[in-house]
Amino acid sequence: MFSKTCEYGLRAVIFIAQHAKADKKVSITAISNAIDSPQAFTAKILQQLTKHKIVQSVKGPYGGFYINDTNLKTTVLSNVVQVLDGDTIYTSCGLGLHECNDQKPCPLHFKFVEIRENLRKMLESTTLLELSSDKNIADYYLKT
C-alpha cells in the first residue's frame, strides 16, 4: 500500500520519536541500520521530513535527528504519509488500475473503499507520541 519511501519514512520517524522521548538525537547511521534502509536513501527521506518540519536535525559531533515535544504530541502518521506519498493511498485503485471509480469500479472497488477509509482514520488519529510509547514497538527497535 505504501511506497518504499513511505515505509522507511514511517519507520524512521517512529525510531526517532522513541529516542526523542529520552531527549536523544540519533545519527543517520543509527536510523538506517535500525530501519534496514540504505543510508543515502534514508538521508533523502529525512531531508524531506526535515523540510516539512516533521523532524529536526542538528549538525556536528553531538548532532543528529530528533522530534521536538510539540511534534511528538501533534504529528500524526497521515502527516508523514502526505509528505512522502501524497494522498494516493486514499484515492488509488486496490488493483492498481488507472480507471477505477464508483461509476466504473474494479472488482475490489467497493470493498477497498472501506479499507481505505479505515486506514485514513488510523493514520489521522495515531500520533508519534502514541507509537513511541508502545511497548511492542520499543521492544522491536531494541532487538534490532
UniProtKB/TrEMBL annotation:
Entries under InterPro entries matching the protein: Tscrpt_reg_Rrf2, WH-like_DNA-bd_sf, WH_DNA-bd_sf
Single GO cellular component term: cytosol
SUPFAM superfamilies (UniProt xref): Winged helix' DNA-binding domain
Gene Ontology molecular functions: DNA-binding transcription factor activity
Designated name of the protein: Rrf2 family transcriptional regulator
